[in-house]
Amino acid sequence: MIKEITPTGPVHARIHVPGSKSITNRALICAALTKGDSTIRNASDSDDTALMSNGLNQLGVLVRKVTDGLVVSGTGGRLYAPRFPIPVGNAGTTLRFLLSLSSLAEGKTTFESDIRMTERPIDELLDALRQFGGDVQQFGTRYAVNGHGLKGGVAKLKAEKSSQFLSSLLMIASYAKEDVQIEVEGTSSSAPYVGMTIDVMKTFGVHVVSNEHKLFSIESGQRYIATEYDVEPDASGASYFLAAAAITNGEVVVEGLKKDSMQGDMKFVDVLMRMGCDVSEQESGVRVQGVGQLKGVDVGMNAMPDVVPTLAVTALFADGPTRIRNVGHLRYKESDRLKALATELQKLGANVIVYDDGLEVTPAQLHGAQLDTYDDHRLAMSFALVGLKVPGVKIENPGCVKKSFPAFWGEFGRLYERK
Fold it and tell me: Which parts of 55-166 are beta strand (E)?
């Protein structure tokens, strides 16, 4: 299937984005370990969240949909290895979080992934789990966990390629037999996501002591408490619509969004301000107004990696080059996002240079093209923005947005409603 985008003039829209997938999946893990029912309001309705919910159901935790989100019936840490493999597709958080969780289940749990997932890093997490006494193996697209609980103690972890390794260990650490210490070797990518994990854990009643984000200590015996949790609107999903205002010199309000969000991707609005946009927080949400020619920027994006594709597309319409730094780990996402962005934006006529740690985008005369999305939701949503200004932009496999934002194309249509 191919979707052609029609150019529009300045957009004026009020947009609703779903709850954060990242926050939802963390809340699901914590709620699963409580003893009682937790309600997760404004939960993401993404494919990744559906895979996570199904995985928890197979491990003996009942997750059911209700009108305003999800209800999770926690088992107090008593989990059961399922008879059949748990499908995880290409969902990084689902596989990485459930691998650690299933170490607490008695018996053998098997996970089945897509081929692309086997190309994404996971060895660092498996190694750390073994240091804690876990028994985990990978066989092609299958991952096997012989669960018998975790001993705990001290583990060294390399988290340069993904912060999800650290988040996965943190969330189950207090259910180990001994206190846990995690020593991060080298740098950790996407530090705000670790902060998000610790914040969600705290809301559910488990505390982490961190020493400059290098040493993390979790006391054994802490237990999560069933609670009602409200998920923030997804800042990554909001970025496409905020960028649409910037690109078209329009105005967009994303309802419910707050500038003090725990999500690192919320810093994208600061980048838009540097590029010349007017940004304000209203009672109903965050507003971005495009106010003239955008300016190129030089910015480190390690704290907001998921909005790199959004910025790369926005940069096509700036005056001067934009340099995106410190995001080498994007090569290990749903696609090699650095290579994919360069390849597809060059099809449009853009000048793009790929570096070890990022990209440089220099504006040029653009033309229409058919763009491969590599089955990567973030690329599909970002590439759609080009079509708001450039005729003839066609998006391959537009349905891949279901991974994080199933209602994206419906909300995108709001950009064409004239006020």
Answer: 62-66, 69-75, 86-89, 107-113, 136-139, 142-147, 153-158
Residue 225 CB neighbours (<10 A): 16
> Is the CB of residue 412 less than 8 Å from the CB of residue 386?
no
Within its chain, how far is the Cα of 5 from the centroid?
Answer: 25
CB burial readout 355-368, b (16+ within 10 A) else e: eebbbbbbbeebeb
Report the predicted TM-score, pTM, of the whole model to 2 decimal places: 0.95
CA-wise closest residue to 117 among 109, 125, 105? 125
The answer to whether 214 touches 185, Cβ cutoff 8 Å, is no
Greatest CA separation for the chain:
61
DSSP state string for 289-301: E--S-EE--EEE-
Sheet holding 86-89, edge to edge: 86-89, 107-113, 142-147, 136-139
Catalytic residue among 306, 319, 372, 375: 306
As a residue count, the chain comes to: 419
CA angle 160, 53, 254 (to 5 degrees): 70
Give the Cβ contact number of residue 353 at 10 Å: 12
199 is catalytic: no
pLDDT tens digits, residue range 25-81?
A: 999 999 999 999 999 999 999 999 999 999 999 999 999 999 989 999 999 999 999
